Amino acid sequence: MKAFVTGAAGFIGSNLVDRLLALGHSVTGYDNLSTGSESNLCDARASAKFELIRGDLLDFAALQDAMRGHDTVFHLAANADVRFGTDHPRRDLEQNTIATFNVLEAMRHTGAERIAFSSTGSIYGEPSVFPTPEDAPFPLQTSLYGASKLACEGLIQAYAEGFGIRGFIFRFVSILGERYSHGHVLDFYRQLLDHPDRLHILGDGHQKKSYLHVGDCIDALLMAMEKTADGRVNIFNLGTAEYCEVRDSAGWICARLGLHPQFTFGGGPRGWIGDSPFIFLETSRIRALGWKPKLTIQQSVERTIDFLQRQTSGAEAGSGDGVVRTDRVRGQ
Amino acid sequence: MKAFVTGAAGFIGSNLVDRLLALGHSVTGYDNLSTGSESNLCDARASAKFELIRGDLLDFAALQDAMRGHDTVFHLAANADVRFGTDHPRRDLEQNTIATFNVLEAMRHTGAERIAFSSTGSIYGEPSVFPTPEDAPFPLQTSLYGASKLACEGLIQAYAEGFGIRGFIFRFVSILGERYSHGHVLDFYRQLLDHPDRLHILGDGHQKKSYLHVGDCIDALLMAMEKTADGRVNIFNLGTAEYCEVRDSAGWICARLGLHPQFTFGGGPRGWIGDSPFIFLETSRIRALGWKPKLTIQQSVERTIDFLQRQTSGAEAGSGDGVVRTDRVRGQ
Prior knowledge:
The structure is a homodimer. By secondary structure, the first copy, chain A, is an alpha/beta fold. Chain A has eleven helices and 13 strands.
């Protein structure tokens, strides 16, 4: 496989790059380094089969040039910020919808055959069926992020029908693990670094959420693409067969850190506008291919905390590659 | 109501403008006249309550200026060309998805409260349930047009959730009637003007399609917005409770014109890539509000042919407002 990975310097992208290289594939990463970090690609850069191109998906000419000669595109670059979508509505349109259109156009012009796309469980809005299957009732979007991912899915499907590419659409729950850089575990960790005696939780803490470890996520991507021989458009939910409350996760985080803070709550069933109070995906379709996650939600949360602690220690020791620095913690 | 109508010079838009003016509302039309025609607004321009602004939805500053002071937006402007989407993929992205984003942003900045949006039955792709209800299983898109309308729907829903506007989304079957300018009735009519002895039909002619008269369509829009007191996002299928085969429609057209051409067929279940071989929408939701169409599909086809004939006669008499001219007929 000659793989082209957008968002290669990001959390999931860099983990995928490492895995693809370990499997012997050639990999080109494409990233504008706006939120990704070159330090995530230290291992990859040691490989002769890896190249990183710094470029923006909105620069169509550069994207097309970079994509030439690749057969499989893993399109992971995105604005992944669900919570603050309403602060800058154009960002989801540009970085998700238009960026994905450019990726598909570049595929059409360069002859790349397959695309794997990181969609989201948020696409189901506030579903009425749990666990939510891929063919759930036609959903209503509740966030600009979900709406933009819906737009991307539609584009991939239409390109598959119109131009014969093959599309693999993965609707992720929230992903945890090494190089995690965004979400409630980091928010809680930063709070507890700053004030170990108290933790503020958005909403009433009873929001029910699902999480998956990045290693299990990548297992699923690669297995689905290997084992799905036919089918122009293949859609898979990815998640564990369990969910937890945000309070549970807060408890695991505090226990891992040996802290006993007082919890305070924002109140209400949602953490923010567009937050889904219950995410739990039906994953029998991907399980039927033989996949199952190796880690529970609790194990994934604990590994993520361990990673953040190593990162903090590294930064304090002056290694310079840490994301979590005290000034940034204080800035939260 | 102070209404702002995008695509006001188009087929459905101009009919809506006339109706709103007849009901005593103030109406601003916004149209770039790329496919719409000023001649559609001859009656409207006689009203002191109507203003036409020539502008493009991709010109955000102009759009925002024009929208100021309006409470209700009817967003009908679109690239409505389903069939040739793959010839110019960027067109649906720009004229539908990005244009709708701009409309929503302009609403947010100007304080317009409600949007009525012309979506499409094509959004269901090739559905598995007939008649297809609004909460059908999460569909797969088969056309760039459908994908772009899906993107628009998601944006409207997210803006309703995030910014408190009210959205009315109408999934139309194909609309027929006076000022009709695009679709199979016009294609067949032009062919028969050019060569009355033969008619070529795309696909095998057994495609099952639904149609609705523009007057019935506008009745439904206004009734839904008047009678749906609550609900941030209101989605309605619009169509007759019947469908016909393309062969049936061809037969009605020929009978209306007094012609007996030989039919030839392109073959296959679809007329083109992305053509849905069966469109039949469940309309009990809008019917529950008291709406029902006044015209059958056959009556709508016949009225459309009568309109096209009047238009051709007008053009031949040199009135200058006809869309169907011989040179354009020959060009088909």
